[in-house]
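Hi V.,

Quick status before I head out on leave. The structure for the redesign project is tokenized and pasted below; the design run finished overnight.
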């Protein structure tokens, strides 16, 4: 894949852009195998590796996380770029790089940025200014003017959009409400528009307060057979096609094991739990974000209402908001399920939950990891749970990142 931003030195996010795609995938599989081999010892040879799930090379990203710079009249949506020092009297500054035509975005997402930029102008949303005041040299001393920090856009498989504006205060909300009818006309595929208020000048992307401005509150992500409803402040995998393949693989392995009960820890909007639900199976999803749990509940209700088969499959499904480790540690021995799915953030499940899984009565663990380094560390704490199957899923082409799914069986 070629990218004119990369060629011009404006953006280096795609660190593997110059590596042929088949080589990227082969290198990733070699990377994860090399990390696991020292942990597993001779048992590594017994792991059955299924062929990697490849992605399309471009146009796969279902979300744009844009930093907003520039001015009200000419907002720039993209990333911060360091301007050459010679350009600046102050010696250091951030200027925006327009990435609205980034080739990782599908055309529908790229096309949305035009009307969204115009919304910023119409609603007089001053981009938040990270430029240092004259004579100062670090972002810490930034002038801290302006209102709009980030624009976050997620696209569903049906081409609908969930748009979030991360702002510094509630001050622009009334103006956004006023211009919403215009935006709905200019962007007919807009499903949800919401404002996230992040008053602090810090690296955290978003704040706690979310104000949804549209009547619709969720973006339906229609995957094979299961529609996941996405509310703002809920995680969804970056690459919808590969996410669908991930859930398909999980269902295949779970159905082989056919557990009567399972937990989906770090369940997000319930992707694994809802796909793996079956009549007579008790499924519990645990997730720290209350908004994500609310999303999972919407999907569960919709599937249950759609058909008698759906109602049967959903009868044993429940979701709760909470910390995954605390939930596991508090469980009575009789409540421990036959299979536990874990899909933690990059930091992994950590030693405490890994040690709990090791000592628990769970016969199987299905571990979906976006960071094989922490997966390998976690496995060190679970010597009785051995990977029997594994599969690399290339969720993030053009970068070193990938997802790996592995089925662990108690020895
Ligand atoms: C990689 S995402 C996986 C989401 C989901 N399994 C999916 O398929 O989309 C990790 C999730 O863990 C959640 N999370 C982070 N820390 C957590 C914790 N301590 N306990 C439970 N969930 C947590 C995040 O909010 C996020 O939804």
């Amino acid at each position: 894949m070629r990218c004119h931003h990369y060629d011009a030195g404006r953006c280096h996010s795609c660190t593997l852009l110059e590596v042929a795609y088949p080589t990227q995938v082969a290198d990733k599989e070699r990377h994860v195998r090399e990390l696991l081999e020292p942990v597993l010892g001779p048992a590594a040879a017994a792991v059955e590796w299924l062929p990697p799930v490849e992605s399309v090379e471009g146009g796969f990203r279902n979300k744009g996380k844009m930093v907003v710079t520039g001015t009200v009249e000419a907002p720039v949506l993209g990333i911060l770029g360091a301007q050459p020092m010679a350009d600046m009297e102050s010696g250091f500054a951030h200027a925006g790089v327009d990435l609205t035509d980034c080739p990782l975005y599908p055309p529908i997402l790229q096309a949305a940025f035009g009307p969204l930029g115009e919304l910023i102008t119409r609603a007089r949303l001053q981009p938040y200014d990270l430029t240092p005041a004259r004579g100062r040299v670090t972002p810490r001393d930034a002038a801290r003017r302006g209102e709009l920090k980030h624009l976050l856009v997620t696209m569903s498989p049906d081409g609908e959009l969930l748009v979030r504006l991360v702002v510094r205060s509630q001050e622009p909300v009334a103006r956004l409400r006023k211009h919403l009818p215009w935006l709905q006309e200019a962007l007919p595929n807009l499903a949800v528009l919401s404002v996230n208020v992040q008053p602090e000048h810090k690296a955290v992307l978003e704040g706690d307060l979310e104000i949804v401005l549209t009547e619709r509150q969720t973006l339906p992500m229609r995957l094979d057979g299961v529609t996941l409803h996405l509310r703002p402040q809920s995680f969804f995998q970056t690459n919808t096609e590969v996410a669908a393949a991930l859930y398909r693989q999980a269902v295949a392995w779970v159905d082989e094991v056919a557990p009567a009960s399972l937990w989906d820890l770090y369940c997000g909007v319930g992707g694994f739990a809802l796909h793996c639900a079956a009549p007579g199976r008790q499924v519990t999803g645990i997730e720290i974000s209350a908004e994500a749990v609310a999303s999972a509940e919407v999907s569960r209700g919709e599937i249950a209402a759609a058909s008698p088969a759906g109602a049967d499959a959903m009868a044993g499904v429940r979701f709760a908001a909470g910390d995954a480790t605390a939930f596991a540690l508090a469980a009575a021995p009789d409540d421990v399920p036959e299979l536990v799915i874990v899909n933690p953030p990059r930091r992994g499940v950590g030693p405490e939950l890994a040690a709990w899984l090791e000592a628990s009565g769970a016969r199987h663990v299905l571990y979906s990891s976006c960071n094989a380094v922490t997966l390998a560390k976690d496995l060190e704490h679970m010597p009785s749970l051995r990977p029997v199957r594994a599969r690399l899923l290339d969720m993030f082409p053009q970068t070193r990142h990938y997802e790996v799914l592995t089925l662990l069986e108690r020895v």
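Above is the designed sequence. The chain is about 30% helix and 25% strand.

G. will cover questions while I'm gone.

Best,
W.
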